[in-house]
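Task: sequence in, structure out. Protein: Short-chain dehydrogenase.
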Amino acid sequence: MEGYALITGATSGIGLELALNFARDGIHLVLVARTKEKLEEIKTRIEGEYGVKVLILPKDLTHEEAPLEIYEELEKEGVQVDYLVNNAGFGTFGRLKDTDLETEKDLVKLNVLSLLEMNKRFVPAMAERGFGYVMNVASLAAFMPGPVMANYYASKAYVLSLSEAMHEELKPYGVKVSALCPGPVKTGFQERAQMKKTNAAMAFLMEAKKVADVGYLGMWRGKAVVVPGTFEKAVPVLVKLLPRSLIRKASFLSQKE
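Result:
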């Protein structure tokens, strides 16, 4: 049976670039995002350029039932998912006391709960077959607290911790799990989060294609944690060495309220 790559948040940014990488390697796709029209455009483009099959599932993963619906629809179609990329996510910007509660709850539903359920739904079958790759998209934010983006940083810390644990648990079953931890990326993320960065922080924005390429290679190599960028690779090390109070302050100062 032919294996598919299932990618959430697949219509732009890192998710789209990862989809193109899989397609270039002849791997069929299941693309998940909220907007049907964008999914249809990308399906037409990828099938025309690369000749792979592209299934689209317009789903909002902040809805509790969405992961089960995805799983059941693919089971019904007999689609085998050998590659799972949990990329969908968003951030909020502002002091936690001021941000909207329902939006913060949606952030946790998408960044944490849906990612957890997608792993729970699709990984057991990979382990039974003795083959599979999982990429959970975390963030450089996972390594530190994030004043003014507190809930987002906390959600990515969860993704990183979960992914590293899964990496060890699934080694004996032939399933490779990676956490992709990019720094700020040139996508629509900042606009949706209504966030502002200092000029210095803006200078470190990476291109989505570069992040996707590094993450894709790291996934194939079975790396537990993939951090794109030379400067970015130093951040996890510095976080371990420097006082937590200094890390909190530096993170806070990188934002503009």
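Residues 3-253 form a domain with the Rossmann fold fold (CATH 3.40.50.720).
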